[in-house]
Amino acid sequence: MHDEKSTYPPSPPKAKPTPSQRRLMRRHALIDGMAVLFLALAAAVVIAADALMLLFACILFAILLYKLSAILQRRFGWNRKLALVAVVLALAAIIGLGGWAMAPQISEQSSELAKQIPASIERLQQEVQRHPLLRKIASELPDPKQMTQQMSQMVPNAGLFFGGVLGAIGNVVIIVFVGIYFAFSPGVYKKGFVRLVPPAKRERATQVLDTLGDNLARWLVGKTISMVIVGVATAAGLTMLGVPLGLILGIIAGLLDFIPYVGPIIAGVPAVLIALSMGPDMALYVILLFLAVQTLEGYILQPLVEARAVEIPPALTIVMQLVFGMLLGFAGVALATPLTAVLMVLVNMLYVEDILGDRQKEDS
Q1: Which of 41, 55, 156, 235 has the most other CB atoms within 10 Å of its CB?
Q2: Helix crossing, 314-328 with 49-76: angle to 10°?
């Protein structure tokens, strides 16, 4: 007997994928890559949310400096870096001289404000206790000591990355210096980011970045002007009404005007509480003052800002404040509007125009 070798038919040659199959494979690979990138970005946001918010704040400050220097460059024909140095020196002089001139008054009024608010709450509770129908409201008001503790924790908890008062100061220093570096040579960072995009899409990525920068720059310049007007108008109005601590309350109103809808309400609470100590009529006058200032800001200043930048619907702004506030805390609420503006530009250019192909012609 001898072993017989079994024979098998030869395997057929492998068929090459057709062009449609190759396109389908590339599409699946692109979708898988986008899913992995989305998961990586989501993990980065969860793990390093504070650092990302700090980085975004640095970018916003850099855009503001770049826009101001570009304005000087166009008006006076200066070199852009020279214009940037002039902007930084001017801002430093304004803040330094203003702080030096008003530091004693601001410090005194800040300490007095911390004492006035708990006392005003106590007087309000005592006044409400006289009316049976309002006793339930009085029971819902926070304890004055608890209010004092919450006020003392507002500044440490408002930090973007580091905690504590020193951490908040550190955040400001980081935003200023990193923002200056970004504004000094923005092309280096933009080109570095664009190089991460496939070569065929780099021109479109540059267009998206330019649109984002232009819209945010116009919004920031307009918002800065609006904040200054709101702060000055509030301080002047409170001083004319005879409400104490008008300067510090005006500064608070101007700074919190950066946060639409929520900021003015937060800024109005201490002013109304202090006015209540002078009588209900004065509290009513203060409420009317804040309503008048916010009406001016909402119907005149804000439309002028949005007409030259991204128009954000009010309902969308409030919803995004809730979303970013839950995800990122106070920093998310403060930066919700510029973040929403960024998302609107990305959705419009990358999804509506590029994927859906809906490109509307701009009006002449």
Answers
A1: 235
A2: 130
Name the one residue in this structure whose structure tokens are 């250019």: 349
Q: Residues, the chain, total?
A: 364
Rounded to an integer, what is the distance from CA 36 to the centroid of its chain?
Answer: 27
The pLDDT of residue 156 is 43
The DSSP secondary-structure symbol of 243 reads -
Q: How far apart are CA 340 and CA 328, in angstroms?
A: 14
- Express as a percent the part of the chain with pLDDT over 70: 73
Q: How many other CB atoms are found less than 10 A from the CB of residue 11?
A: 6
Spatial separation of the C-alpha atoms in residues 222 and 211, rounded to whole Å? 17
- pTM (predicted TM-score): 0.72
Secondary structure (DSSP) of 138-175 = HHHSPPHHHHHHHHHHHHHHT-SSS-HHHHHHHHHHHH
Instruction: Judge whether residue 141 has pLDDT over 60.
Output: no
* Averaged pLDDT, 298-304: 76
